[in-house]
Amino acid sequence: MRWVEIGPDITDAQKQAISQLPPKMTKRCKALMKQIICFSPQETNLSLLLVAWVKIMKPRRADWLSVLKELKTLEHPLLFEVAELALPEESFEANIRDYTKIIDGYGKQNRLQDAENILLTMKKRGFTCDQITLTALVHMYSKAGNLKRAEETFEEMKLLGLPLDKRSYGSIIMAYVRAGMADRGESLLREMEAEQIYAGREVYKALLRAYSTIGDTKGAQRVFDAIQFAGITPDVKLCALLMNAYGVAGQSEKARCVFENLRRVGLEPSDKCVAVMLAAYEKDEKLHKALNFLIDMERDGIMVGKEASAVLVGWFRRLGVVGEVEAVLREFATHEFKYRVPS
Q: What stretches of residues are PPR repeats (predicted)?
């Protein structure tokens, strides 16, 4: 391919993009960036374009990295294609991290086949998977919901004696959570703690949510305790999940205890917390306690929001007493408590 410089006959958008290239970028890098910005697959072959650039400009690894960094900043659609074509180039001096970055990038886009193709190419070129590469694969398979491949890759790390870190453990735990196997995920959580490795907040939260959804109060309480043991201060969202576990299990009084505990430590109950509490009372058919709860909330300046209102309205509709809601509330309120249920 003959190298043809970009002329003035380009679109305003292309001119704008070219004008915003970093001032410190070398001329050889800007030359390639201009070509990529104005690239048209109908008129140019990207592989031949890069070959011509290498032959004429004689780039070094730093130049390749500068171009890839700018493509990533621009979120350019040709980023991965350019990165793949760079790998076999002698001037790029590819190492295993370059392959891992592409695999991880494809994983984030859920492009499993493309990631596996790069992995195969990497192995054919004599690179051996290390801890970082395998962790990226576990994370990718976990995110895609492919438990079998996530397990196989995680076990490969163990067999190779590679160190297991927060990310690798967290990824496989999330794979079990997504597969509806929270107990397996919790077992790995205990394994982590034995190694004095602690998962991130989101992993604990996902496990807690899994137990909360099915009303497994023991599991939810164990994870909630583990969160505090890991040095993570529970927030309102985590408390709401624990409350919900008790609510789903029909243990409204224990849900109320969690609600009062979160207030006791200075947290402001969210509308979600109020909604969860109302749902717990509905499941236990404790209308009287629910109304007293609402009055207590109003007295303390905690307003009922959209989600809590929806729970309350749904409950009264099932009871067939929507029209009497305000009268019932007035009967319970001996002070100036006014609450209007939306129609």
A: 95-129, 130-164, 165-199, 200-234, 235-269
Confidence (pLDDT) at 335? 46
Domain around 52: 9-94
Closest residue by Cα to residue 108 from 81, 144, 75: 144
- Check if the beta carbon of residue 153 is closer than 8 Å to that of residue 138: yes
pLDDT at 323: 60
The predicted model scores a pTM of 0.83
Report how far residue 223's alpha carbon sits from residue 208's, in angstroms, rounded to the nearest whole number.
Answer: 6
Half-sphere exposure of residue 239, counting CA atoms within 13 Å on the CB side? 25
Same domain, yes or no: 60 and 154: no
Of the three residues 77, 94, 111, the one that is the final residue of a domain is 94
**Residue 225, both tokens:** 């305790």
> Given this model, what pLDDT does residue 136 score?
96
